[in-house]
């Protein structure tokens, strides 16, 4: 068992709520009970030591990596209006954790309700929530040889709606903040301490050198939900400054189910253009994302990001797709495990399946005929560059399983996809040697991917030392100057590259000073080297095979097997590769079968628990996932690994949906499955 797993299994892990300081106070938040309305007045709890309203804050959360468009940022507290159920209206501070619930019973607000905008259709045709239009983002991606469209001899179309899902990590969000003079210290459950610092810097108007952000030793999952800062982080900081004491906020599960950010929610209508011989030419159409009430984090980039991956690992000639994001009175949209990759895989594989049916070609043969060549760089018509990798090798292995299942009388499906690894701009790391220890520091933060063991193992192998003398410190703005974080499948790629780059830098320094590694290790001095190692994007080619069965009497469909094949470049820890893919596949398959964050016509969530939202129990997991990692083409980055953290989700969503379609004998127009349509 890996060392970080042992503490978790034994119940000895330290999470955010396990950390405390003397005289800590507790933050509570009164949230809007209506989806849209005008705030007339608020009634703070009488027991509160402090109440914070919009007039005390007057700040908005930042929006990253996007310029232009109709971007409306989320206010830290309601700025006179509320736009989704659960939006923070005001905050308060009490002495004891249990007082928060009592204080909420005392609190209230007079809110004049307005008619909410709930669906994409209402957003496109109804009253604007903000300003003059509900369209937040409107882009058109056109690229490649657009003249090839006239050579199209056959067109197939798919229309698919994906409903919202909520990231449900074991541990919800949480922070503890305190001040030392004019310096702010923040501890919490984060995927990126550096992103949280940048967000607080902008929201609070503070210089970054005055803010220290450290992740708790254990983060109970993230799935994209713990990348950015949230209103409560800023509110805790403001409260702590005013009261001169540490302030803790721990999100309840009910708060988590209503809070930003939620994922997936989109409607796509796309056409695949091809020749009669099965040569695919390109994709046209439209994608519209339900962006919720405000733009947050990197949310506005998703229309463009999904479209950029639509051609998949195929040699398409052109792309012409419009991408939109619209405002609705729901929680803001953002990254959910895969963050656009599973959506793109589902869309291009649904189109490929429809083309195979139209041309009466074997679906495996059609895909193989159009696959990108292995070992060659390839640029998609969207401009996205695919690095040399084993596209055809993983598909060939998947096809062996596909053919075997067919011989066994099953009705399998086979898909091809790639996992885009978000390496740019790189990652920060530092290595220190001396006093009998090797210390590794990195900007990447663990939330379930065995960072400690991974970094310790690659450093031990490079230096030729025992892993047990290596200490690993992660996800803290305190220990390195610059870092990025853990998301986009980037740890084994950009993270390992940074750590090994720091090792190489340290070895170079020792060589210049005429000091051997053994001498440095046993010295009373410490030798160190810090770097920010740049890293280009890479992709992880994947293929998957699945089959499902339908039970007409019980009105149910069951995915039975899922096989996932990946060119991982280099396997660092096999058990972690398998675990990450199995977990990701479960999230993808759950979205096919169960998960849905649904809202009524008034914008009220129709779920109040994890089970209501559709997170499957062990009894619901009817499938068996088989992981087949392959070392075909290592990357040019140090370590050679390709990221796989989100790959299983793409495989589960796309292969699972097509397998259910085959079992039912009809196409699906929306996910997850509606049991009422299965009879």
Roughly what percent helix? Answer: 25-40%
Q: Strand percentage, roughly? A: 25-35%
Number of helical elements: 17
Low-confidence stretches: none
Radius of gyration: 25 Å
Structural class: alpha+beta
Give the biggest sheet.
7 strands, mixed
Total beta-strand segments: 28
Walk across the major sheet and give the strand order. Answer: 3-5-1-13-10-11-12
* Shape, principal axes of CA atoms: globular
CA-CA gap between termini: 46 Å
Compute the average pLDDT.
Answer: 95
Note the main attributes of this structure.
alpha+beta, 28 strands, 679 residues, single chain, 6-stranded mixed sheet
Question: How would you describe the overall organization of this protein?
Answer:
The chain is an alpha+beta fold and 679 residues long. Helices cover 28% and strands 27% of the residues. The strands form 7 sheets. It has a 7-stranded mixed β-sheet, with helices on both faces. Helix 9 (341-359) packs parallel to helix 17 (647-664) and helix 15 (574-593) crosses helix 17. The protein is globular, with a radius of gyration of 25 Å. The two termini are 46 Å apart. The mean pLDDT is 95.
């Amino acid at each position: 068992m890996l060392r970080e797993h042992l503490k978790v299994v034994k119940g000895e892990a330290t999470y955010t709520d396990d950390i405390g300081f003397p005289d800590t106070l507790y933050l509570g938040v009164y949230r809007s009970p209506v989806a849209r309305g005008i705030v007339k007045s608020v009634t703070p709890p009488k027991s509160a030591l402090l109440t914070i309203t919009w007039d005390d804050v007057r700040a908005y959360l930042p929006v990253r990596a996007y310029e232009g468009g109709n971007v409306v940022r989320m206010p830290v507290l309601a700025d006179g209006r509320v736009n989704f159920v659960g939006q923070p209206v005001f905050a308060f501070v009490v002495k004891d954790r249990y007082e928060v619930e009592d204080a909420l019973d005392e609190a209230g607000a007079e809110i004049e309700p307005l008619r909410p905008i709930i669906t994409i259709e209402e957003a496109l045709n109804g009253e604007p929530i903000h300003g003059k239009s509900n369209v937040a983002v409107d882009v058109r991606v056109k690229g490649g040889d657009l003249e090839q469209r006239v050579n199209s001899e056959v067109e197939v179309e798919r229309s698919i709606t994906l409903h919202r899902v909520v990231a449900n990590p074991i541990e919800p969000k949480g922070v503890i903040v305190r001040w030392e003079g004019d310096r702010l210290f923040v501890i919490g459950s984060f995927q990126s301490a550096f992103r949280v610092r940048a967000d607080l810097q902008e929201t609070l108007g503070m210089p970054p050198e005055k803010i220290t952000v450290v992740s708790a030793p254990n983060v109970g999952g993230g799935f994209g939900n713990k990348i950015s800062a949230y209103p409560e982080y800023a509110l805790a900081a403001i409260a702590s400054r005013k009261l001169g004491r540490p302030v803790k906020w721990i999100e309840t599960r009910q708060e988590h189910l209503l809070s930003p950010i939620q994922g997936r929610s989109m409607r796509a209508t796309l056409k695949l253009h091809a020749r009669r011989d099965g040569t695919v030419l390109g994709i046209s159409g439209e994608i519209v994302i339900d962006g919720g009430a405000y733009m947050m984090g990197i949310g506005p980039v998703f229309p463009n990001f999904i479209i950029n991956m639509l051609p998949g690992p195929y040699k398409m000639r052109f792309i012409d797709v419009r991408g939109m994001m619209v405002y609705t009175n729901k929680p803001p949209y953002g990254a959910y495990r895969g963050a656009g990759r599973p959506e793109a895989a589902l869309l291009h594989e649904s189109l490929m399946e429809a083309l195979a049916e139209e041309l009466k070609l074997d679906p495996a043969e059609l895909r193989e005929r159009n696959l990108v060549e292995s070992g060659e760089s390839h640029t998609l018509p969207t401009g996205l560059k695919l690095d040399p990798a084993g596209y055809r090798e993983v598909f060939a292995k998947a096809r062996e399983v596909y053919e075997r299942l067919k011989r066994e009388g099953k009705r399998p499906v086979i898909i091809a996809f790639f996992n885009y690894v978000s390496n740019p701009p790189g990652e920060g790391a530092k290595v220190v040697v001396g006093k009998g220890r090797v210390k590794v520091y990195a900007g990447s933060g663990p939330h379930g991917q065995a960072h400690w063991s991974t970094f310790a193992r690659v450093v031990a192998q490079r230096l030729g030392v025992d892993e047990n003398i290596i200490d690993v410190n992660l996800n803290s703005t305190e220990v390195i100057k610059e870092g990025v974080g853990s998301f986009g499948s980037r740890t084994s790629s950009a993270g390992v590259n940074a750590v090994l780059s720091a090792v190489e830098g340290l070895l170079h320094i020792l060589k210049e000073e005429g000091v051997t590694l053994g001498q440095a290790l046993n010295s009373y001095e410490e030798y160190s080297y810090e770097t920010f190692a740049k890293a280009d994007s890479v992709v992880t080619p994947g293929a998957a095979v699945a089959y499902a069965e339908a039970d007409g009497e019980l009105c149910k469909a069951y995915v039975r097997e899922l096989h996932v094949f990946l060119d991982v470049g280099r396997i660092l820890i096999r058990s972690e590769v398998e675990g990450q893919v199995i977990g990701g596949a479960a999230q993808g398959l759950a979205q096919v079968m169960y998960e849905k964050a649904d809202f009524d016509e008034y914008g009220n969530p129709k779920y109040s628990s994890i089970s209501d939202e559709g997170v499957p129990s062990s009894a619901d997991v009817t499938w068996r996932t088989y992981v087949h990692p392959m070392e075909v083409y290592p990357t040019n980055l140090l370590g050679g690994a390709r990221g796989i953290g989100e790959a299983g989700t793409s495989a589960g969503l796309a292969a699972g949906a097509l397998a259910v379609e085959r079992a039912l004998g009809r196409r699906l127009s929306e996910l997850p499955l509606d049991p009422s349509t299965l009879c």
